[in-house]
Every structure is written in C-alpha cells, then in structure tokens.
Structure prediction request, 365 residues.
Amino acid sequence: MSRAWNFWRQFDYVLFGTTLLLIVFGILMIASATRGAIDPDLISRVPDQIQYAIIGIFVVFVLAAVDYRLLGGLHLWLYLVMVGLLLLVQFLGVVGDAGSQRWINLGIRIQPSEIGKILIIITLGYYLSQRYHEMGRLQTVFGSLAHIAVPAGLVFIQPNLGTTIVFGVIWFTLVWSAGLRLKHIAMFLLVMLIAAPLVWARMEPYQRSRITTFINPEGDPDAFYNIQQSRIAVGSGGLVGKGYANGTQSQLRFLRVRHTDFIFSVIAEEFGLVGGVGVLVLISVVILRILRGARMAADPLGSMICYGVAAIIFFQTTVSVGMNLNLLPVTGLTLPFISSGGTSLLSMLAGVGLAESVIIRRRRV
Prediction:
C-alpha cells in the first residue's frame, strides 16, 4: 500500500496533464485537417490516433511503474530487439510514400525507427552511464558512435533521413551530458564534413530535392508549392485565426500533408499567433518538466534518459515548426503529440513514461 501511495505521490501530474492536453488538441486538429476527406487512409486518421493515444497512455503508466534501472540492465536485449526490428523492415517492410520502406505489419502497422528512438536512449544511456568518468578517452566516444551507427545506418537506408538525424541528435545530447570533451568536437566536425559527400550520394532524389528547394525555391516550383501554401496559411491566420475548421488553405485542400508534416500551419491558420504560441508553450512545459527530472535523477542513467527524451521533443518541434515557416528544409518529422502518426505518438508517450519512471525514483532532497 505504501509503495502504491509513493508512486502516485511522486508522479508528475503537470507533465502528464500537459501531454494529455496536447494529444487531445492534436486529435482535434487532425479531425479538422481531414474533414470531408474521401480517401480511406485520411478518414481513418482520427480513430487511429485515438486508438494509439489510449495504448500510449497505458504505456506511460506501465513504464512509470517499471524501474528504469531494470530496463538499463536489459540494455543488450533491448539493443538486439531494436536492431532486429530494423532488419525486419529491410526484408518484410511495407513500402510507403516515395518508395520508402519504413513500416512492418504485425497486425497493426508499426514504424521500428520510432521505437528505436526510445530504445537507443536506454541502451546508449546505459553504456555512457557506466563510462561517464572515461569520457576523456577517445575509445569511449568511438564506442558510443559504434553503438548508434548500426541502428542509424539501418534507418538511413530505408530511406529515412529525418529520423537518422534524430539518432545523431540523441547521440550528441547523451555524450555531451556524459561529459564530451571539447577537444573531440572539432574532430567529429571534420569527420562529418568528410562524410557529407557520401551521405549526399546515398540520399534519394526527393530528399536532395527538399534541400535544394530550400536553398533555391525557384529551381523547383512544384516542390516549393506546399511550402508556399504553408506560408500563406500561417500568414493568413493573423492574431487569433479564422476559427476551428475554417482555414481556407487546409479545408480547400491547397495544403498537402496537412495532417502530418504541415499540421502546425493548420493550427496557425485556424487559431492564429495565439494558438501557435500556445502549442509551443505547452510543449515547452513538457520539455522543462522532463529536464527537471534529469536534474533530480538519482543516477547518471536517469539523467541521460530524461535528457534524451527532452532532446527528441525539442528537436522535432523545432524542425517541424521551422519547415512550416520555411526556416528549415522539409524533413517529414512529426510535431510531437499533435501530428498524425500512431507509432510516433506511441514513441513520444513511451518517452514520457520513461521520464516519469525517473521522476518517481528521484533522489530525496
């Protein structure tokens, strides 16, 4: 009885409540973006998002109840599961848009790269928590790179450049929090510059087009079309927007992929600057509560788990909003908790569950 009371007493209700608020708002925005759709895929987006939200909330409480240190002890098995799922994509994957092979069908379609983002936080976090006092040794840093290189490489060849970059952000966040030495940063920047031409050569044409369109919009008017529509939607929203489900760019179908990549444009058009800023404030609250958990964590593993989850949410929010405003190239990354995408929502909620596990078992102050 006392353990159950301690669980509920330490649980971060502000983090959980804010997350729920974002999910409900996201479902309402997906409903607006797909209103009047005749495509079966679009029609099913709202019920699918509700289904995954219910499953995800259950996952939050399960992971919060499980000691994160137990998951750290299972790091090898979790790593093998992650690599195994990513390998299954190569052999049994479902082909989606632009020829990308990112999903597998296990009764329900799941995207292993989304699951991998959470598992790599646990496994890499455990690796670094055991060696954070050895971060001055190049061997330790290269070991962390080797650790993440296998899943990141499998994600890249799907192809999925956006999530590959997320893996890189997770790696940098965790090694930095573990005490990455400044002397190593210049070395890795040099390696990135050397590797850039090889990465460019391996990218799919549509991925290169997103970057070249960002640099030179006039070079490909068709590719730039949706970015133009996004800017129109954001600008026409004004201060308070046109009202729920009254956005012309989204309701008249000028704005493509409005339920996923460009959902922030729908929010800005229908709720204006107030609505867009409001969403960013709520996401900021989630990030700050998770960072608070990192500061109060009982051990390095707990801190790294929280830092990793916060990094994913921050980076994906920045990129998603940035590409809607034409400040960053289009990458296809979802707006956390809001964009349509079942496995993406599950992975975000799993991250919240892990952060709650750390918070519940925080050190006594």
User: Anything to note?
Assistant: The chain has 16 helices and three strands.
